[in-house]
UniProtKB/TrEMBL annotation:
It comes from the Bacteria. This is Tautomerase family protein. InterPro entries: Tauto_MSAD, Tautomerase/MIF_sf. It comes from Paenibacillus agricola. It holds the Pfam family Tautomerase_2.
Length: 146
């Protein structure tokens, strides 16, 4: 259930590149966070230079105008190891497949809970889904005990 926002300086990436970036992000989400293949919600934003402000060398990382921000909102619970592996693989694939500099891949994970999401119809589908799983697992435990 991740929601991915991708921000970049206008005229830095072509439409075809954005399609490839979308595919790579989804591939890494599936591999590292076990996201279902059809759970794809992404928004791409290009910004004018006056709207895209960043430090060119914060933490001794040399950034260029090719900087691309990935803000990924997702369910909490992933380990530090999974997160760091995700960051590494995303930067590696974007570098290898699209020639985006690893230094220009900036990722923020924003963790939420099931009750923080609705996928439409004004319902908390993930919360309802988890409530059903807990209910049925309790029934299974009761049946096993008998």
């Amino acid at each position: 259930m991740p929601f991915v926002r991708v921000s970049y300086l206008e005229n830095q990436y072509e439409s075809e590149q954005l399609t490839q970036i979308s595919r790579v992000v989804m591939q890494v989400l599936i591999q590292h966070f076990d996201v279902p293949e059809d759970d794809c919600f992404q928004v791409f934003h290009s910004h004018k230079a006056s709207e895209f402000v960043y430090s060119r060398n914060y933490l001794n990382i040399e950034r260029s105008d090719g900087l691309i921000y990935f803000q990924i909102t997702l369910k909490s619970g992933r380990s530090t190891e999974k997160k760091t592996s995700f960051y590494s693989k995303l930067a590696e694939l974007l570098s290898n497949e699209l020639k985006i500099r690893k230094e220009d891949v900036f990722v923020m994970l924003i963790e939420t809970e099931f009750e923080d999401w609705t996928f439409g119809n004004g319902e908390a589908q993930m919360l309802q889904r988890m409530t059903k799983k807990v209910f049925f697992s309790k029934i299974e435990e009761t049946v096993k005990e008998k």
